[in-house]
From TrEMBL:
GO MF annotation: an example: ligase activity
Principal cellular location given in the protein's record: membrane
Protein name stated in the entry: O-Antigen ligase
Membrane topology label: Multi-pass membrane protein
UniProt KW keywords: Ligase, Membrane, Transmembrane, Transmembrane helix
Domain O-antigen ligase-related span(s) in chain numbering: 258-406
Source organism per UniProt: Pseudobacteriovorax antillogorgiicola
Membrane-spanning residues: 29-47, 54-74, 94-119, 126-146, 158-179, 191-213, 225-243, 252-268, 274-290, 297-321, 395-418, 430-452, 458-476
Keyword field contains Cytoplasm: no
Record's signal peptide: none
UniProt keyword Ligase present: yes
Compartments where located: Membrane
GO annotation, cellular component aspect: membrane
Length: 495
């Protein structure tokens, strides 16, 4: 392959950027976009990557990089944030045309569009249930925007409020497409595992060296959504050990090491939303695996249980006799000081619930701010749209889209959850039950974020959840409904 066009396009990229800084007084965004397009075009022409490879690279971007808006590491700017700006910062407009999406979303849309029109899908078409589930939230958004326009709401604000919704159907389609090749399923899991390992090691080193082993006044270490990613990675390495009955001892040891490397920054990051999701997953675990496997795991689990209890008792005891930073962190989970006043979230949820009562049938439509019955603290310095986009996105979609919005959210969660549960109880070993359990876990983690922390606008968790939903639908149809899975019962719907 001739590499000269690649180097030439890189040189053009540099010249365009430098010339724009000189001629436009530092306004180099148009030149960067132009040069990036040229560079990407030549690169694609020379390397000719498949849609599969592009999708997997985008997944790696979602796992490893962080958007600057997430403010990872506070004052420290890691390379992952610098690169994340290229993919996740919105393009406000090009040539005067408003464009509320970012590069990551636009490439995702192009890949999904190419797949939908690609002739290869005629042999394995995207079925009606997959399309309904994928499109439920965007259809709800369109309906609520129309309701809002009839009420005189602002269209620009409405688009801002639902701007990340299209990511969900896009990546469900991409996941469904990728699952046609079994090796892609392993690629998806490995990308999350190795990308999270990089993220965890970087966080541990930064915490130990640059921060001196303490958070100080900082609320978190990395960013909120990185806890979702690390939690999902822990689930993957655990599922590979539990569900693969032929796993060799060295693989079990490696996965255990990975698990504890993920766990350290997960705990330091102190995101109780993700921790709550993991608790739900652990409690659900016995009901999700095949009976014979559960019986085999019962004895080792009972053997481990006393050591787990002793460890918990020891950690709690240490927390109450030591004044170290680690002990203070542990105490914050066990005996948090009671709040003297209503928290911001409590006031926010009260206002949202009153908004539901105000427009109980159709909702108030996107493009407006939710009603304020109890005054909120002004946090506009940190988040300008605090009174238009709340944290609780169950109430959020209920206020703006009414019962139809809740129905759409239920569709996109309940059917994938049922399918994932059926796959995780699959009688075979290997990738099928692993994908089922990981998808169930991803959905649970994401739903907790939806309820507590703006999950419907979180591009990275939505990407990982949606790609697993699509893969689960493809596996469910191929291995369960066809009878190859050995399951004796069927769901009430067909995929």
């Amino acid at each position: 392959m001739d590499h000269r066009p690649i180097f030439l396009s890189g040189l053009v990229f540099l010249l365009l950027t430098l010339s724009s800084i000189v001629l436009l007084g530092g306004n180099f965004i148009p030149a960067v976009i132009l040069a990036s397009a040229l560079f990407a075009g030549v690169l694609i022409y020379c390397l000719r990557p498949s849609v599969d490879q592009v999708c997997l690279v985008l997944l790696a971007v979602a796992v490893v990089l962080e958007p600057p808006a997430a403010n990872p590491y506070y004052d420290h700017t890691p390379i992952t944030e610098i690169l994340g700006a290229l993919f996740f910062n919105s393009i406000k407009k090009i040539s005067g045309i408003p464009l509320p999406f970012n590069i990551y979303e636009m490439i995702s849309f192009l890949c999904a569009g190419a797949i939908l029109v690609n002739f290869r899908l005629r042999k394995n078409p995207v079925n009606i249930v997959t399309i309904i589930v994928a499109a439920s939230i965007p259809l709800v958004a369109v309906f609520s925007i129309l309701v809002g326009q009839l009420k005189g709401n602002q269209l620009g604000l409405a688009i801002t409020q639902i701007r990340s919704f299209p990511i969900l159907p896009t990546w469900v389609i991409l996941g469904f497409y990728l699952a046609r090749k079994r090796e892609n399923l392993f690629h998806i899991l490995n990308i999350v595992k190795w990308g999270s390992l990089f993220k965890a090691v970087y966080a541990i080193l930064f915490f130990s060296i640059s921060m001196g082993g303490t958070l100080g006044d900082q609320e978190y270490l990395i960013d909120h959504m990185s806890s979702y990613i690390l939690g999902l990675a822990m689930v993957i390495v655990a599922a590979e050990v539990v569900f693969d009955r032929r796993a060799e001892i060295h693989k079990i040891l490696i996965n255990m090491i990975f698990f504890f490397i993920y766990l350290i920054p997960f705990i330091i990051n102190d995101r109780r939303t993700a921790m709550l999701g993991l608790v739900f997953i652990v409690l659900s675990f016995p009901a999700l695996i095949e009976k014979n496997l559960l019986k085999k795991l019962l004895v080792p689990l009972l053997m481990i249980l006393p050591f787990v209890i002793m460890t918990i008792v020891g950690v709690v005891g240490f927390a109450f006799v030591s004044n170290s930073a680690g002990a203070q962190l542990i105490r914050s989970y066990i005996s948090a000081a009671p709040e003297q006043n209503l928290s911001y979230r409590s006031i926010e949820n009260f206002n949202l619930f009153q908004g539901v009562r105000q427009s109980p049938i159709l909702g108030q439509g996107f493009g407006s701010k939710y009603p304020i019955y109890m005054e909120l603290p002004d946090i506009s310095h940190a988040f300008e749209l605090f009174d238009a986009i709340p944290h609780n996105h169950v109430f959020y979609i209920w206020v703006f889209a009414g019962p139809i919005g809740i129905g759409g959210l239920s569709l996109v969660t309940l059917i994938p959850l049922i399918s994932a549960v059926r796959l995780s109880g699959h009688s075979s070993h290997g990738i099928i039950p692993i994908i089922g359990f990981v998808t169930f876990s991803a959905l649970v983690l994401w739903l907790v974020y939806v309820f507590f922390d703006m999950g419907l606008l979180a591009i990275r968790p939505m990407t990982m959840t949606a790609i697993l939903i699509g893969a689960t639908f493809a596996l469910y149809r191929n291995y369960v409904q066809t009878g190859r899975g050995g399951l004796r019962t069927k769901l009430f719907f067909k995929l």
